[in-house]
Amino acid sequence: MFELTGFRSWRRWRLTLLALIVAGLLTACAAARPIAVPTLASGTPVSPPATVTLEQTVSTETPAMMTEVRPTAPHTPAPPAPEATIVPPTLPATPTVTAPTTVVPSATPTTTPRQAAFRPEVVKLSLEMVVGGLNAPVFATHAGDGSGRLFIVEKPGVIRIWEAGELHRTPFLDIRERVGSRGSEQELLGLAFAPDYVSSRAFFVNYTDRQGNTVVARFTISADPDAADPSSEVKLLEIAQPAANHNGGMLAFGPDGYLYIGTGDGGGANDQFGNGQNPGTLLGKLLRLDVTSDPTGPYRIPAGNPWVNKPGVRDEIWALGLRNPWRFSFDRQTGDLWIGDVGQNRYEEVDLAPGAGGQTAGRGLNFGWSVMEGTHCFPDTVACDHTGLTLPVIDYAHGSGDCSITGGYIYRGQQFPALTGAYLYGDYCSGRIWALDQDPTGGWRGALLLDSDLAISSFGEDEAGELFVLDLSRGGLYRVTAQTLSRNYLPLWASLASSLNARHSRESGNPPACAGVTERSMS
Length: 523
Hints:
CATH architecture: 6 Propeller
CATH class: Mainly Beta
Shape: globular
Helix content: under 10%
Structural class: mainly beta
Low-confidence stretches: 1-10, 15-53, 55-109, 488-522
Distance between the termini: 8 Å
Number of strands: 27
CATH superfamily: TolB, C-terminal domain
């Protein structure tokens, strides 16, 4: 995880070359071009059928592990309803993109086009370091309690508090003795505070234990609001990991009040364990759990989960077909679910599941892995069937240093109105940050906002909706800032953005930055 061998030296060479390119662009006045977004003939991704086609298979977790992860609600499988049969997926000899005849009405894969304030051409994005000296920071979030505190997750097993411009000396939580790693993509990876945190004092973490297995656990704070009680841990879910990479790690509460958990496909390469499309395992999925209605037990299965009591399908599954959903987020205004799913060797992707008041975003969707990598058949030497799959709103090829997407947030802060409603995301390998938005006609438009030299492990969001960036290699927390450009600088910005955005749509081999690098973080 996060290996940097052969990467930073190439970055310095690239920055020198970029400086020369900028000098040449001083005389250019080309207009900015939007990112080329692959879509189907209809212009929209394919919707899933009412019941995603699934195989009736058994879970790959060990019996011992399974006994520890059962929900408190009864979990006796019942025959499926007559109108919701489960059939195995097919891979015909020739590809087809014909939409299925039946779709899920509550979770269509497109949003209603809206006139947003998105104007990246007048924004000059920059990053201001506010905290340095962190130990491998991988996430930052707020507690939703009005305190203004930002909680920073350090991968070895520590959570720190940044408040009023100062980093607390004493950790909020230290579980280093419980956190283990069989590889660089493990340890403490995720944090989410309960929606009722002010009264329940509960928060949730995602980490790998000393055996390398995924653990989702609940903690509560002590009498000191700046200190969690390490002895309060209740393990809600444990998932055996067959390999050391692709652990997912993200936790987030949806607008519906349920906890969503992203899991990787179990690691290795090329989905070698076949988990992406296997409904009998929790790996390669987005899970949805009720963890607040019963504070004494582990969790309950929400009644609205798409495959409750279906034989061979885990009740916890909300969506499937994910490779390594390292970071995902909900739009705090619309309830839309955005996922940055890390690709294999060629493509990174942004997935979108529109929300209906946050109640159904992503329900029953199949995001395609490992039938597809991005919008391309996987492997691309064989034909595949797109039917029933929800394709990404955008994917981009590895090249020019890009090789591992870091999902971000829809910007809903007040500081930069020109970016309101845009999805900000980045690439861990290249350090680039982009903005993506849907225009009034329903098409997707994007722009490169910043070409940094950071190893972007995550974005963070404070209670006001302002954004932060975490740099794994330097151990820094950066505040996203911006200024409005004057007219004199707009042609230069447009030319530079046009040349750099073109990289987002062209296909190439593995970038020099990733040469010799094996299975990086979020890879």
